[in-house]
Amino acid sequence: EIPTFLKTGSDYQREQKLAAKQNQPLHSSREKQE
């Protein structure tokens, strides 16, 4: 896996978008369960 500081701008942005997609649904479902 490539360290974040070695990634290009486009790679970094794409990973940020993927992280956002994964984090938001998990966060919502976690709130509903409590």
Structure description:
This protein has one helix at residues 9-33. It is 74% helix and 0% strand.
Tally the helices.
1
Which structural class fits the helix and strand makeup?
mainly alpha
How many strands appear in the DSSP assignment? 0
- SSE arrangement, N to C: H
**What's the story with the biggest beta sheet?**
none
Poorly predicted ranges: none
Percent of residues in beta strands? Answer: under 5%
Global morphology:
elongated
Q: What integer value in Å does the Rg equal?
A: 13 Å
Global mean pLDDT: 72
N/C terminus separation: 35 Å
What's the SSE blueprint?
Elements: H1 9-33
Region (Disordered): 1-34
What brief labels describe this structure?
single chain, 34 residues, mainly alpha, elongated
Structure summary:
It is built from one helix and no strands. The chain is mainly alpha-helical and 34 residues long. Residues 1-34 are annotated as: Disordered.
